[in-house]
Design a protein that fits this description.
Length: 382
C-alpha cells in the first residue's frame, strides 16, 4: 500500500511539474509575441528631437551612444541594472526571453565614451533573473560588481566576472520557509538552462533586487523586494549575513511595499540609507539599523525603482515612465518624461538610470528592454 501511495504521489508531482512547464511555455509565447514594433523611422526621428525636463536638467536622446548589437537586443526581455565605474566605464545587466546556450550572457560593458566593448561572464550568470547591478571602488583600489538576481542569487565579482563570494539563499536567513521546492536545485538548473530564465518560479520567495553600500566600507544592505519586502545586512568582504533584517510588508513607517532600490545618501548633512518604497509611492530614509528617520513624497514619485547621486542631485527612475531629479533639499526640480520619446516604440518603463560624469544620463527599461543615452542640454534662458 505504501509503495502504491509513493508511486501515485510521485506521478502527481510529475504532472504538476509538466503543467508548470506548459504554463511557462504559453506565457513565453504570449509575452514574446507582444514584443514592441518599432515606429516608422520618420515618426521616431520627430520624437527624438523632443527636449524633456526642466531647469538645469533638460535632455534629448542620443541614438549614437550606448548602441547594443542586434543579436543581444533581439533576445533580451528587460534591462535591469546599470552602474558606473571610477574610470567612466558603464556596466549594464539584462535578462533574456529565450532558453540559454553557451553564448548567452547577462552583462555588457561600455567605455567612458558610451561605446560598446562587449559582453562579460558566462551563461551561468544569466540563469534566473539578473536584476540589480551595483559597483564601487574598494580599499584595494579595484572596482567590484555586486549582483542581485531575483531567483535567489546574490554574489560579488571583479570586472572580469571572477567570483569573489556568493551567498545564494543563505541558511542564516531563517525567516524564509524551506520546503520541497528548495531541494530541487538540479531541476531548477535544468529549467533555467532549457527554458526562458525569467519565468521560473523563485524558490522560497527569496528575491534579491539591489544593494547599497555603507560608507564604512564593511557593510552592504540588500533589498529583497518582491517577496517579504525585507532589507538584509551583509558583510561586503565575504558576503556573510550580519544578523540584521528590517522592514516587512505594510504601509506604516518602517515597513515597505516592494523596497526596490536603495542607496546610501552621503550628501552634505546626510548619512542615511535611502530606500525606494515603490509600492507605497514614497521614499524612506533609515539609519543603519533600519529605523525610519523620514519619508519623502511628491506627485512625481509614483513607482520609484532605484537611485543615483551626482553632486547634490538625486536621480530616480520611475516605472511609470519618467525620471525624477531632486536637489539637495530633496525638492523635485525636473521630471523627464522619457516615455514620450521611447514609449511609443514599446519601452515605457524606466527601471534603472545613472548619471554620467558630465551630467548625461543612461536609462534601462523593463518590459520590454531598451538602453538609451540622454544628453544634458543647457538650461533654458529666461
Amino acid at each position: 500500500m505504501l509503495s502504491i501511495l509513493g508511486k501515485v504521489t510521485r506521478w502527481i508531482i510529475y504532472l504538476i511539474l509538466a503543467l508548470f512547464l506548459l504554463a511557462i511555455g504559453y506565457l513565453t509565447y504570449v509575452l514574446t509575441s507582444n514584443a514592441p514594433t518599432p515606429l516608422p523611422p520618420e515618426e521616431q526621428a520627430v520624437l527624438d528631437q523632443k527636449i524633456l525636463g526642466q531647469g538645469e536638467f533638460r535632455y534629448r536622446i542620443r541614438r549614437d551612444k550606448l548602441v547594443v548589437p542586434e543579436e543581444i537586443t533581439s533576445t533580451w526581455s528587460n534591462v535591469h541594472g546599470l552602474t558606473l565605474a571610477e574610470d567612466g566605464s558603464i556596466y549594464v545587466t539584462y535578462s533574456t526571453w529565450y532558453g540559454h546556450d553557451e553564448n548567452t550572457r547577462a552583462l555588457i560593458k561600455f567605455d567612458n565614451n558610451a561605446d560598446f566593448l562587449g559582453t562579460l561572464g558566462t551563461k551561468d550568470h544569466a540563469k534566473g533573473e539578473p536584476h540589480g547591478l551595483d559597483g564601487r571602488t574598494e580599499q584595494d583600489g579595484k572596482f567590484y560588481l555586486y549582483h542581485t538576481n531575483n531567483a535567489g542569487r546574490f554574489y560579488k565579482t571583479d570586472t572580469d566576472m571572477n567570483e569573489i563570494w556568493s551567498n545564494n539563499f543563505p541558511e542564516s536567513l531563517s525567516m524564509y520557509e524551506r520546503g520541497f521546492f528548495n531541494t530541487m536545485k538540479d531541476f531548477y538548473n535544468w529549467a533555467y538552462t532549457n527554458y526562458n530564465n525569467n519565468m521560473i518560479a523563485i524558490p522560497s520567495g527569496y528575491s534579491p533586487c539591489n544593494v547599497a553600500f555603507n560608507p564604512n566600507g564593511k557593510d552592504i544592505y540588500m533589498a529583497d523586494c518582491y517577496s517579504g519586502s525585507l532589507v538584509h545586512k551583509f558583510n561586503a568582504e565575504n558576503g556573510e549575513y550580519k544578523g540584521l533584517t528590517f522592514g516587512g510588508k505594510g504601509e506604516e513607517a518602517n515597513l515597505y511595499n516592494t523596497p526596490h532600490g536603495l542607496i546610501w545618501d552621503i550628501r552634505e548633512g546626510r548619512d542615511q540609507l535611502l530606500i525606494a518604497d515603490r509600492g507605497n509611492n514614497r521614499l524612506q530614509y533609515t539609519d543603519g539599523d533600519g529605523k525610519t528617520l523620514s519619508v519623502v513624497t511628491d506627485p512625481a514619485i509614483v513607482e520609484p525603482c532605484d537611485f543615483d547621486i551626482w553632486k547634490d542631485y538625486v536621480l530616480i527612475p520611475d516605472l511609470t515612465g519618467h525620471l525624477v531629479v531632486m536637489d539637495e533639499n530633496n525638492k523635485v526640480i525636473s521630471k523627464i518624461n522619457v516615455s514620450e520619446v521611447i514609449g511609443a516604440a514599446g519601452f515605457p518603463h524606466p527601471h534603472d538610470a545613472i548619471f554620467l560624469p558630465n551630467g548625461d544620463i543612461a536609462v534601462g527599461t523593463w518590459f520590454n528592454g531598451s538602453l538609451t543615452y540622454w544628453e544634458r542640454l543647457p538650461a533654458e534662458e529666461g
